Amino acid sequence: MRSPDIVTTRLAALIILHAARAGFAAPSVLVTRPVSRLSEEWLPMDNQTLYTLEEGESRNLELNTSSISQTVVYITVSPCSRHLHWAFYKGPAGSDKQLQLIQEHGGGEMHTITFQIFKQERYVLQLSSPKGGAAAISVRGEATRHVRIRLRTRSKRRLSANWDPSPIDPQSTTYCVVASRRKNYTSLCAAQYDLRNTKTEKDTSSDQSLENHKPNRSQNSGSEENKIDIDKDSISIFDGNYRTLYRRKKFGRSTRVSNEDPLVVCIGDRTHHFIENLDPGTTYFVSIFGIARDRQIGSLLASGSVRPRTSTAKRLRENVPYKADIKGKNVYYLKTTTSSTSTNAGLWIATSTCGGSVDIEVYVKGKRLYVAKNIENHSKFFVPSPILSSTQETSDEGSVQFDSSSEESKIRYIVRVVPNKWAIDGAVTIELLASTSRWGMDTPELTDGGVIRELRPRRSCKSVDIAFLPATHNATDVIRYCISTKEIVDKDITICALTKKSSTKTQCISHMQRPQSRVIVQKVSGLKPGRKYGIQVTAASKGISVPYNVLYVETNATCKEE
User: Fold this and answer.
1) Torsion-angle region of residue 6: left (phi > 0), alpha (psi -120 to 50) or beta?
2) Omega of the bond leading into 515 within 30 degrees of 0 (cis)
3) What three-state secondary structure class fits 480?
4) Could you count the other beta carbons within 10 Å of the beta carbon of residue 502?
5) Fewer C-beta neighbours within 10 Å, C or N terminus of the chain?
6) What count of Cα atoms within 13 Å lies in the side-chain half-sphere of residue 170?
C-alpha cells in the first residue's frame, strides 16, 4: 500500500485542478483594488466650515465640481494654530495617483486660493497637523471684499478704529476687533487660540508660585494639586460657535490693553471702537473680522497698524500765551477751523524772546508755509492758510469713495522753534501766542521798532531818564508798562524781563492812551554811581508782554555836581 501522505497530496492537487477548470480561481477574485487610507469629504459651497484635526490626523476635502455653476472659485484657509499644514492638489477626474501639487502652506496665516475649475478635473484640499488643531475653510464664487479702516491716535495712550460696514449682508453682521503688539492676525480663531494659550501659561505660572509658598506638602498630594483642570469647552475655538466667553462679555465703547496679547473683543454691530492704555512707541496691529451665519468663525474685513505718537509736541491754545525756557528744538501745534471761502484766513503768531534769538518755522501737513529767522526781543507775523481744495479719497479696493470738501476745514499748524543764539546758561526764554485774528491775541503793537532813548542831560549818579513811544492797541486804551533794570557785571549783559529768575528791579506804570501822547518819559531811580545798567521796557494788556529793545546806560561816577 502507498503511504497516506502521498495519497493526501495527490488528492489535494486533483481538487485544485478541477476548481481551476470550473473557473473558481478567476483573476477578478484574486486581485482587489487598493483602498485609500484617507476618507474624502465634500467641501460645502458659499459657507465657512470649521474642521478639527487630532494629533497626527489628516483630512482630504474635495470640491464637488458637479454642483458648482461658477467658473472661478476662491478657497480661503484660516488656520487656528501655527501647527497646521495644508496642500492643494488637482488632477484628472477619477484618478488618485495623478494629483498634482498646486500650493501648500504651513502656519497660522490666512491664505486664499484662486483657480478656474473644469468638470473633467478634481480638486482636493488636504489638511494635516502633527500636534492637532483646526482650520476654517470658506469656498465662494467671488473674491473677499475688504473694507476701509481708519486708525487714529487720539493721544499717546489711546487710539480709535473706524471701518466701513461689511459689503456682504451688513444688517446681520457683527464685528470682532483684534489688537496685537506681536503680529498682524489674519485669522480670528488663531487670535483666540493664542489668547487661550497666554491665559493658560499665566494661570500655570501663578499656580506654581502658590505651590512653592505652601509649606508641609507631601510629594503625592503636591503632584495631584499641580494638575490644572481647564474647562476647554468654555473657551473652545474649535466648536464652530462663537457664543462663548468672548460673546458673553458686554464690551463698551472702549477696551483697555493689558499684558495679555492679543486683545480680542467682539462689539456687536458697531463700526467703531476705542483702544486705551497703549504703550507709546509700540506698533499695534489691528484687524477687523465680520461674523454672520455663513461666517461663524469670522472673515477678515480690514487690517492696519498704528504707532501711538511719541512726539513731545506741546499744544498751543488760541489767544492763550505760552511761556517756557528752551535749550533745543521745541515743537508746538495748534488746531484751528478755517472757512474755505475766506480769502484772509491764516494764523497770526506773536513771539517775545530774551536771552537769545530763535528761528521759527510753520508747517501744515509737512509743507513749510513760513520761516522767520533771528527773532530777537519781539516779532509778530501772519501765516496765510494753505489753499484747501475739494479732495476725493478712495479706498485701496476702489469700492468706497467720499468727498472731504466742506464749508469749514480743520487745519493743524505745526510751529517749530529753534534757538540760534543764547546766553551763557544756554537757555532762551520765549513767550508764544497764536491766533486766527490779528487783534484776537490781545497784544500791543510797537512803533518805531521798540527803540528806547536816554535823556542824557538829566543823567545823575543815581538815576537816568528814558523816553519811548507808546504802544498801540485796537481793543483797549490802557496799557501797562514795566521797566526792568539790571546791573551789568563782567560779561553778563543779558537782561530778561520775561522770566522771574532774572535778578532785575522792576517798576510798572499804567498809561492811558487818551489823549494820545507822543512820547512817554520815565525816570529810573535807585541806581548806583559809576555803574553800567541794562534797561528794558515791556508793554502788555492781557496777552503776552511785548519787549522794547534793551538800552544800556552808565550813571555818573560822582554826585558832587548834583
Assistant:
1) alpha
2) yes
3) strand
4) 17
5) N
6) 11
175 contacts 290 by C-beta, under 8 angstroms: yes
Q: What is the pLDDT of residue 464?
A: 92
C-alpha 261/C-alpha 191 separation (Å) is: 9
Is the CB of residue 511 less than 8 Å from the CB of residue 520? yes
Model confidence pLDDT, tens digit, residues 54-91: 888 888 888 888 777 778 888 888 888 888 888 988 88
What confidence score (pLDDT) does residue 517 get? Answer: 65
Lookup: cell for 273: 471702537
Amino acid at 298: G
| 3-state percent helix, strand, coil for the chain, nearest multiple of 5 | 15, 45, 45
- Residue reference for cell 520765549: 430
Amino acid occupying residue 129:
S
Q: Answer for the pair 414, 363: CB distance below 8 angstroms, yes or no.
A: yes
Nearest to 192 by CA among 203, 174, 180, 202: 180
Amino acid code (one letter) for 91: G
Listing DSSP states for 482-515 in one string gives: EEEEEE-BTTB----SS-SSS--EEEEEEEE-SS
* Backbone phi, psi, residue 316, to 5°: -100, 135
Round to whole Å and give the CA distance between 369 and 413: 10
157-201 tens-digit pLDDT: 888 899 999 888 888 889 999 999 888 898 888 888 888 877 766
pTM: 0.51
The C-alpha atoms of residue 487 and residue 494 are separated, in whole angstroms, by 10
Q: Are 46 and 139 in contact (CB under 8 A)?
A: yes
**pLDDT value, residue 466:** 92
> 3-state class of 14 per DSSP?
helix
Chain mean pLDDT for the chain: 76
pLDDT at 386: 82
CB-based burial, 285-305: b 16+ in 10 Å, e otherwise: bbbbbbbbeebbbbbbbbbbe
Q: Look up residue 355 and give its DSSP letter.
A: S
What confidence score (pLDDT) does residue 211 get?
Answer: 55
Contact predicate 392/404, CB 8 Å: yes
Q: How far apart are CA 148 and CA 292, in angstroms?
A: 19
Could you tell me which residues come within 8 angstroms of residue 153 by beta carbon, excluding any fewer than 6 positions away? 159, 278, 306, 307, 308, 309
pLDDT at 394: 37
Which of the four pLDDT bands, split at 50, 70 and 90, describes residue 252? low
Cβ atoms of residues 285 and 275 within 8 Å: no
Distance CA 175, CA 406 (A): 31
Checking if the pLDDT of 31 tops 60, the result is: no
Cβ(302)–Cβ(147) below 8 Å: yes
User: Which pLDDT tens digit goes with each residue over 209-240?
Assistant: 555 545 444 344 343 333 223 333 333 444 44
Percent of the chain with pLDDT over 90: 5
